[in-house]
Amino acid sequence: MSEQVLQVRGLVKDYGERRVLDGVDVAVGEHEIVVLIGASGSGKSTLLRCVNLLEEIDDGQILLDGQDVSDPRVDPDLARRRMGVVFQSYNLFPHLSVLDNVTLAPRVVHGLGRAEAEERGRALLARVGLADRAGSYPDRLSGGQQQRVAIVRALAYEPRLLLLDEITSALDPELVGEVLALVRELAEQGTTILMATHEMGFARQVADRVCFLDGGVLVESGPPERVLVDPEHDRTWQFLRRVIQAGRL
After folding, report:
1. Is the pTM of this model over 0.85?
2. Which of 23, 7, 11, 36 shows the shortest CA–CA distance to 208?
3. Which 3-state string (H, E, C) describes 117-165?
4. Last residue of one domain, picked from the residues 121, 140, 159
5. Which of 57, 77, 105, 247 has the lowest tally of Cβ within 10 angstroms?
6. How far is it, in rounded angstroms, from Cα 138 to Cα 150?
């Protein structure tokens, strides 16, 4: 078994009287791609926000490389520096160029010199086919290009774990493929990823494990060929039938 980069144990998250995550256990090994699936409101995004310590948890533990980063005594900013995160919206700074967006965190948060940060940033932009857009501003890019820049920004400081939250949901259908192709390339290169997606075909092709969440409960987890083709639980079957009817599998 590969070294476990992330371990989520018995995670509970409440919003007032509503329980959004109910005792969730998830582990991500080094170089693994673990994909979260489930209907809207199932808890996928909340789980990712809890892992990134953007949400305070009510019970359970979040361990990153064996360290309990959910311990109140741990500085969450230090823990977040070891994780890259990309959300549905690109969240690029509109007043900064593409290169400045990519190099801001390595320089300001991680103390990297400008020359080194820019060299690394340009190399990453070239890797995703955007070398010629380094000096452009976000509003001059397509949605797919902006999302690729957001992913590059998350990779710029070499995170231990990459968190991706429905990164294609805000894109036009013709732009989805280029972003998923980048994630597929990252997976092939050994990036450790925990991602939520509604792209079932992509999950089946790329994931090492698929986790189905329903009503804040982890219903089942396993290889994609089992969970997406021959699931053990009726709740998973019901979800997949809806996905098939919607033409997403």
Report:
1. yes
2. 36
3. HHHHHHHHHHHCCCHHHCCCCHHHCCHHHHHHHHHHHHHCCCCCEEEEE
4. 159
5. 247
6. 10
User: With contact defined as beta carbons under 8 Å apart, do 162 and 191 qualify?
Assistant: yes
Tell me the C-alpha distance between 196 and 167, whole Å. 8
Final residue of a structural domain among 133, 159, 185:
159
* Per-residue pLDDT at 188: 87
- Same domain, yes or no, for 72 and 179? yes
Work out how many domains the chain is built from and give that number: 2
Pull the structure tokens for residue 1.
Answer: 């078994």
Report yes or no on 87 lying in a domain. no
Q: What is the pLDDT of residues 36-65, one digit of tens each?
A: 999 999 999 999 999 999 999 999 999 999
State which residues form the domain around 126.
Answer: 92-159
Question: How far is 217 from 220, CA to CA, in rounded Å?
Answer: 9
- CA separation for the pair 118, 104 (Å, rounded): 10
Alpha helical stretches, state H, the chain:
44-51, 76-80, 98-108, 114-127, 143-155, 173-188, 200-206, 224-227, 234-245
CATH number for the domain including 176? 3.40.50.300
